[in-house]
């Protein structure tokens, strides 16, 4: 059994709470249960849940420790991967495993990550800035003032899908497919039934065929896009079909769902905190920090999953080899010991950048700089036009415990 210096947590003082219940998220009712867990059961064994038995980790410091020990707390697809659903329904007909580099442990993870990481480096992101700004300006200028529209569809999806199309050099007129594939690839509720799996597998087979065609084109005529980068890499040029599809899903979901749902979180969150919205409108120099705070407050991926690779009691409770762990970023980003009044948006929060929304350690989101660029530019272009988003009614939210986001949000724009 592994024993090491780490954060010891108190034993659970309350009955198990199943935070994998999708209704908590579609109904926006997850805040109080997580507060109870942080206070009374920071690490809790949940013997029965929507996705089977697992450890539920709801506070900041244990999650950081787990993320820093990838050999002990594994991300490998061989053990179940990076979300809590991936091994819960292996018995279902049609279950297909698509490994991606995020679902690998070092050193394999390191080699594949190094392939794509340069595409998201500081100089590469700087080169994207002008085009991102031009595209953002065009989207905003096409929006009506004083008329209702869906912010998710017209802004969040349009901007993030456009960025994905550019990163992959994907046919621009077909870019809506990227959104559909991303939604189905990240929908863990579809994995609960054979029918759902069939829908998901059909869509991802379509995606795999489309990207296989792009692969063939780039072999002959390579560019600077992500497909060309993979082709030219010793670590990724020999992927089988399932690994190739898994990595494409990862890059699409990572580049789409996270940024898109934070853009929607910006609109919804500032409606809930009008005094913070006014502060931003009168102090646009707050925008870089405001982006970090909104990323923290929204937390576009509610959890990441790890699997215990060796028996350990470093946190107090005995975790056994093979145990599944849900690391709840959504709760950790509200941990009262780290973020004062973490339920609230504070755009000048001094430690907003400490959020875990992009993960921590070796698996920290490789595209974080691109996400931050898109969000900063959106807020800057809104400020230039003195545009305010007014939410007209409660949004329709994603019914799942993985992607924490919005399906639709009726709004109208006004000027301040």
UniProtKB/TrEMBL annotation:
InterPro entries: Cyt_P450, Cyt_P450_B, Cyt_P450_CS, Cyt_P450_sf
Gene3D superfamilies registered for this protein in UniProt: Cytochrome P450 (1.10.630.10)
SUPFAM superfamilies: Cytochrome P450
Claim: 4Fe-4S is one of the keywords in the record: no
PANTHER family assigned: CYTOCHROME P450 YJIB-RELATED (PTHR46696:SF1), P450, PUTATIVE (EUROFUNG)-RELATED (PTHR46696)
Membrane-traversing stretches: none
Keywords, ordered alphabetically: Heme, Iron, Metal-binding, Monooxygenase, Oxidoreductase
Protein name per UniProt: Cytochrome P450
Origin: domain of life: Bacteria
Provenance organism: Altererythrobacter arenosus
Entry's family note: Belongs to the cytochrome P450 family.
